[in-house]
Design goal:
Bound molecules: adenosine-5'-diphosphate, magnesium ion
Number of strands: 13
Helix content: 55-70%
Oligomer: single chain
Structural class: alpha+beta
Strand content: 5-15%
Number of helices: 18
Largest sheet: 5 strands, antiparallel
Number of domains: 2
Radius of gyration: 23 Å
Length: about 425
């Protein structure tokens, strides 16, 4: 669908939210009236609400779609699975900007048309990005990818978020006061994602640091043809990772790509302590010579040293088996707090221990078969148990360092991709030796 008019005025956006809020509220009323008499499917309610919210998010483009994408990644909990199903549709459903609007964007930021900047430029975008779209261009026979941001996204992101926040919190049933630090973290990353100059810097940084990894390809970027809202890079030829996962039948080839994915995240996490936090299949291309092409460095997360050290030392036997050390590390990452009651401390200690035993298993073993269905089921089951446990719904139980959000998002993405690839990968455990305990 093409639309030239974006809902940019505050009033217009606010009224869309109001309407959605009413519809979502209406769905709840209908649901509870019905459920007073009969057994009804709660998933059905979640689905209806998800569709309403998605419709608004979609019209807001930018931040809204980004949030829809994040919600779609967040499964593992029963209630969210239905949201995830609906929101997953948001990944590829952004509305396209028409040719004239693309030209306007170029004029605004360069004072030139794309035809003056490139030897050729296709005004029709063939690929949607979450807050923009990607065009094909050429410069002396080199095929280029030009990512253009939707106008108004960066400026409206804060006010969009302020409207989206209460809707999301309400639907998810979370109190706003305890959620603020997490919301701020997400807001910070989302705002960073609208800065294509930052994306370019981050891509160049990772490209330089990963130069020694022959199996990983990061395209060349063109600073002189890029600015805050337009990003120019080499076009990466190959198969999108999502298609590779569906169609590649050679297990050896799948294996090579899986190992590259793990090495990619692992090196950034443990050596750079700053990593690409958006590991979904749209951001990877398998090149024809079987290398892992990486795109989209808009969302990167840096881990402060104290958090990094405490978090990963939880995978060491010397920490797990030493109650005092274990407690100290959990305190550092805000899973245990001064002032917790005896029961609270017990609950969080036990839950953390169980979580580590599952999530860190691949790291602890050094080699892991991600095709293992039981492992995946165990993770889902663990998530469901936490979801079902009322003790975790108390405001005081919403805790944990904000730095874990994007770390988990990245590793959750990685584990999912490795599972879909069905591969057995090796994990270099030497980083454990460098931790301070
Ligand atoms: N250099 C490139 N070569 C080939 N395809 C690209 C390139 N850059 C982007 N794409 C395609 O465009 C899509 C959106 O670009 P991306 O940078 O991931 O945007 P977003 O930051 O919004 O997720 C990608 O999923 C990919 O399919
Ligand atoms: Mg992307």
């Amino acid at each position: 669908m093409t639309q030239d008019k974006l809902p940019t005025s505050k009033v217009e956006r606010a009224s869309r939210f109001l309407k959605t809020g009413l519809k979502v509220g209406g769905n709840y009323v209908a649901h509870y009236t019905k459920s007073a008499f009969t057994e009804v499917d709660r998933n059905d309610l979640d689905r209806k609400n998800a569709i309403e919210i998605l419709n608004v998010l979609r019209q807001l483009k930018g931040s809204g779609l980004k949030i829809a994408q994040m919600l779609s990644m967040d499964n593992g909990k029963k209630k969210k699975k239905t949201y995830a199903e609906v929101f997953a549709g948001a990944q590829n459903n952004a509305m396209a900007l028409s040719g004239p609007m693309v030209l306007n964007t170029f004029k605004k930021y360069w004072g030139k048309t794309p035809y003056e900047l490139y030897d050729s430029f296709n005004p029709i975008s063939i690929l949607a990005a979450s807050i923009g779209q990607v065009h094909e261009a050429k410069l002396s026979d080199k095929k280029l990818a030009v990512k253009i941001q939707y106008p108004g996204v960066a400026d409206s992101i804060k006010s969009d978020l302020n409207m989206v926040k209460p809707v999301v919190l309400k639907v998810m049933g979370l109190p706003s006061a305890v959620m603020n630090q997490y919301m701020d973290e997400i807001e910070e990353r989302l705002i960073e994602e609208t800065d294509y100059e930052l994306e370019l810097q981050q891509a160049l940084f990772v490209k330089k640091e990963l130069a020694g990894f022959e199996n990983i390809i990061i395209p060349n970027y063109y600073p002189e043809l890029s600015n805050k809202r337009i990003l120019t890079m080499d076009w990466l030829e190959g198969t999108m990772l999502s298609d590779f996962i569906k169609t590649e039948t050679d297990p050896v080839k799948r294996q090579i790509i899986g190992q590259s994915l793990l090495d990619f995240l692992h090196f950034q996490t443990h050596t750079l302590k700053k990593f690409h936090a958006d590991l979904h299949p749209g951001n990877f291309i398998v090149t024809n010579d079987l290398k892992l092409g990486v795109l989209d460095f808009g969302c990167m997360k840096s881990l402060p040293p104290a958090f990094y050290n405490a978090y990963f030392s939880l995978g060491l036997d010397a920490v797990i088996n030493d109650p005092l050390k274990f407690r100290e590390m959990l305190m550092e990452i805000d899973l245990i707090r001064e002032g917790d009651s005896v029961e609270e401390e017990k609950l969080f200690l036990e839950t953390a221990l169980n979580a580590i035993k599952i999530i860190a298993r691949p790291l602890m073993q050094g080699e892991f078969d991600f095709s293992n269905e039981a492992f995946y089921q165990e993770m889902l089951q663990f998530g469901e148990e936490i979801y079902a446990n009322k003790d975790f719904r108390k405001p005081n139980a919403i805790r944990g360092s904000k730095h874990a959000i994007y770390l988990h998002r990245a590793f959750y993405g990685l584990y999912g991709l490795l599972h879909q690839l069905g591969v057995n990968v090796k994990i270099d455990r030497t980083f454990f030796d460098k931790l301070n305990i």
